[in-house]
Write a structure and sequence with these properties.
This protein is an alpha+beta fold and about 375 residues long. It has a domain of about 160 residues. The protein is built from 16 helices and ten strands. The termini are far apart.
Length: about 375
């Protein structure tokens, strides 16, 4: 088998499948990434969503027998929404991060990887594969960087010269021995805009992220959002794009190559108030196909409540008071009480005082007191 020729055929076929960039690397252990992950774990900077076994994240042989190489792919996604609905007084809207626009990227990339596997299998029947997207064991960015897709940037994303950091990543471990591509040199230079702009200081320094402080992580948690971050998330209901939007390498980057990735404004930028009482079925029907729905409706609802407080949307007070009184989930009741106090006014004060007499949950009572404390100022 002429693997150089096969590699070129794969590259050409990948383009026909709608894969925007492809690279090849060895299946060697990612030693530098291992040291980085160990340090992150020691500092308590991990999100908890990652594969727990660091060795599996950096050693392909632990999840695939006799690996010879890894194929990395990237698909570019849009950075701008066409005809985006406006967020106005009385009809405030939240925003999903760009990585949750359109169909869940896991679905899109797995489709491309599956088709690429089928093409290679026809050429080499003995070929074996293990493909993964984001939720697999391997560290996507380390694979992409070593395969020459882009460089690992200060904002902890992989930046490609062609598409900036607005790319989804996937990889395929295989038993076929492809010649590796050259890794790309760092091009961030002295620029530190992403670190300086991070709303919560989660970018501790270039290339090092404390996920516990990252808004993208915080919007996916299910408990009460810590007080110090509530005024930071604005109207974000899933994810955060600040470290991407300030990046000079992303200036002018906006690609609409994939129909599945096109955002529906009513989903990517939804009205906030209807989210407060959306049923499980309605949530699944409307948002189930986007990646931002993976944690269920609770974090989205909590974030929507905080966003209404951010806007000080007085018209939402009746809905917030209803949630504060009737929702069975303490996190939602408590966050609504906090938000009512933030918005303020006699209606909010009366409802909080009434609820203080009725509420039994200690955490919710603490949030009611916070809400009332805002009304004293």
């Amino acid at each position: 088998m002429d693997y150089r020729l096969l590699k070129q055929e794969i590259i050409e076929h990948a383009a026909s499948l709608g894969i925007d960039k492809i690279g090849f690397t060895t299946a060697d252990v990612f030693t530098e990434m291992k040291n980085h992950l160990i340090r992150q774990e020691q500092l308590g900077y991990q999100s908890g969503f990652e594969e727990k076994d660091i060795n599996k994240r950096v050693d392909p042989s632990l999840t695939f027998s006799e690996p010879r190489s890894i194929i990395a792919i990237a698909l570019a996604y849009p950075s701008k929404m066409k005809d985006a609905p406006k967020s106005i007084k009385g009809a405030r809207r939240g925003i999903f991060a760009r990585a949750s626009w359109g169909t869940d990227y896991h679905t899109v990339l797995r489709d491309r990887l599956s088709k690429l596997e089928a093409f290679i299998q026809k050429r080499v029947p003995k070929a074996r594969f293990r493909s993964m997207v984001d939720t697999g064991e391997l560290a996507d960015r380390a694979v992409a960087e070593r395969a020459g897709i882009g460089w690992s940037a200060k904002n902890c994303a992989v930046i490609t010269p062609e598409f900036g950091s607005y790319v989804y990543l996937g990889e395929m471990i295989t038993n076929l021995p492809f010649e590796p591509d050259e890794p790309m040199q760092d091009q961030c230079g002295t620029c530190n805009k992403c670190v300086d702009a991070c709303p919560t200081g989660a970018l501790v320094q270039g290339g090092q992220l404390n996920a516990q402080k990252c808004i993208a992580f915080l919007t996916q948690t299910k408990g009460f959002l810590p007080d110090e971050y509530r005024n930071k998330i604005g109207n974000r209901i899933y994810g955060c794009d600040t470290c991407q939007t300030v990046c000079p390498k992303n200036k002018g980057k906006d690609f609409h190559f994939h129909r599945e990735m096109e955002p529906d404004g009513e989903i990517a930028k939804p009205l906030l108030e209807p989210l407060l009482t959306i049923s499980n079925r309605e949530f699944k029907e409307k948002f189930g196909h986007v990646s931002g729905s993976w944690r269920g409706k609770k974090p989205i609802q909590r974030n929507a409540i905080i966003a209404l407080a951010h806007f000080k949307e007085e018209s939402a007070l009746p809905a917030l008071i209803g949630v504060m009184s009737e929702d069975v989930r303490p996190v939602i009741r408590g966050t609504a009480a906090w938000a009512a106090g933030k918005i303020g006014g006699d209606q909010a004060k009366e409802a909080l005082l009434k609820r203080r007499l009725e509420e039994k949950d200690e955490e919710v009572l603490a949030e009611i007191e916070k809400g009332l404390s805002f009304l004293k100022n």
